[in-house]
Structure formats: C-alpha cells, structure tokens
Amino acid sequence: MHVVDNPNNVTLVIDPSQGKQTYQFLIHRLASMGMTITANGNNSLIFHGRGWTGAYTASADAAALTLRTGPVG
Questions:
Q1: Number of helical H runs and strand E runs in the chain
Q2: Which of 6, 8, 33, 57 is positioned for an S-S bond with 44, CB 3.0–4.6 A?
Q3: For the chain (length 73 residues), average pLDDT per consecutive 10?
Q4: Which pLDDT score, from 0 to 100, does residue 57 have?
Q5: How far apart are CA 8 and CA 70, in angstroms?
C-alpha cells in the first residue's frame, strides 16, 4: 500500500486477468449508479456523476480505476 497526500483521489489497481470483466461490469452498471460515460473505447472509460469523475482502463498487463471528487481541469 502506498499513501499519497491527495484526499480527493482514489485509485484501485485490479488484477489484469479481471480487467475485461470489470470493464463490462462498469459499462452495464455505471448509469444505474447515476454516472454518465463520456468516453468509451479499447477497454477504457471516462465517466462522471454525483460529484465524482472517474476513469477505468484495462490491458493484458494492467487494470485500474481512478475516482476523483471536486472539479477537474
């Protein structure tokens, strides 16, 4: 575990073997959680809603989900 002094950012690293399954889960469930997908392609997503922005990406080597609160940009 690494501690980073950034209280508005959470990153979850996922076993790459679960990457595509997690991507499919997010595609089918984000809308029901009040999220809007703004970009989708190549096993990657960008989404926002309910005060959060998020990104997910998966490949054969890595998979991760990042969530942020507050304004982005």
A1: 1, 5
A2: 57
A3: 70 96 98 97 96 96 93 58
A4: 98
A5: 7
